[in-house]
């Protein structure tokens, strides 16, 4: 009979001292112990302190997984989960790096629990007293969930420690990474129950939990993340009539950030408040949020309802899918997508202007004209659509906004690797047509702003020109009209 293999996933964010104690408590259980095998996966989640990277030297039997960026609690656990499933683990234990196992028979009892997802009894200290967590109850009015301090029927169990059968992940991919932190465990448990899996508490086994030792390192940012996750959870699970109640509670959560706001400049203040207010308006109006992702050409939509902009830097359509590009645009895109709610959002990609202004003709010259401009455009479009398709495959509704027309002639664009203005006009128009044709063939929504703002010679019409290469805010009503025509935006 094949012994069950358990994969224990521990996510560390700049907290090596507590993580060390968690790993010690796991290593008490020998991998050769009768009845099961144990593999431990340590995810160093965007850690910046040198001591975290040295943990694997102190614990050579632990498998280290490194993420260069902080993927949040959900993303970090999913990274460990992916490795555990690849290694053939039949069960996965998610345990916080500020938790330690108390019970010597922890795994034996967990394997026999009968639940698909099992929580131990969580013990922690609050106001000098020992408190036990028996699971949580959902408040369907305010979204202010509470922990049961005595036995009772729970709606969910804390993500501080969840012992899960691998079969669960055949129906549920893992934690929803739209919840960077907070509420991801509630969402996970509700999805599991909806999929027909039994979740429950095994009170005869215990862990000790040192509350919020890692999240406290986030400082004031913690409240911002909590408020965002609260709103996302409420939008997803609470009834419509509770909207004014959970909105008020969310504003209360944000009010705790007033000291942060008072220290901020006006621009920073707007950027802090706008996402929450935009989300509330979108919920009230029953319309999606439109997340514009691209290069500097997204800035004219900044702080304009219902758009949220995500600037990837000097990203190109050609290299958007490359994990080795100098701009790191692919990594930035993945981090951005992990923070967006799939159910209430539309992702709009806006890239290509840099390709048309520089990259395509530069590649043409670099290849000594052995490849035609048409071939380079086809390759650029193919690379671009591959990433858009991958995003759609993750469950997002996607659209593409056409590239910005060629800007006016300036000395800055007279260098030898730039084509002349007429050639750039031709490249941009050809890129636009190829992208539209191939996107529509794939069933991807294409928003043809180009035809509305381009002048007869291919440049930007004066009334839509912000500077020599960028559009101004006058294009926003046109963009909303295009979204409405595609039945994405209805008021």
Brief overview, please?
Keywords: Glycosyltransferase, Transferase. The chain has helices at residues 16-27, 50-53, 55-58, 72-86, 106-111, 184-194, 221-237, 243-255, 258-263, 266-285, 329-338, 353-366, 373-393, 421-441, 450-453, 476-485; strands at 5-12, 37-45, 63-67, 91-95, 99-101, 117-126, 129-133, 136-137, 146-147, 161-165, 199-209, 289-294, 307-311, 345-350, 397-401, 445-447. The chain is of the alpha/beta class.
Which helices and strands appear, and what pairs or packs with what?
Blueprint: E1 5-12, H1 16-27, E2 37-45, H2 50-53, H3 55-58, E3 63-67, H4 72-86, E4 91-95, E5 99-101, H5 106-111, E6 117-126, E7 129-133, E8 136-137, E9 146-147, E10 161-165, H6 184-194, E11 199-209, H7 221-237, H8 243-255, H9 258-263, H10 266-285, E12 289-294, E13 307-311, H11 329-338, E14 345-350, H12 353-366, H13 373-393, E15 397-401, H14 421-441, E16 445-447, H15 450-453, H16 476-485
Parallel strand pairs: 1-2, 1-4, 2-3, 6-11, 12-13, 12-14, 14-15, 15-16
Antiparallel strand pairs: 4-10, 5-11, 6-7, 6-10, 8-9
Helix pairs in contact: 7-8, 7-10, 12-13, 12-14, 13-14
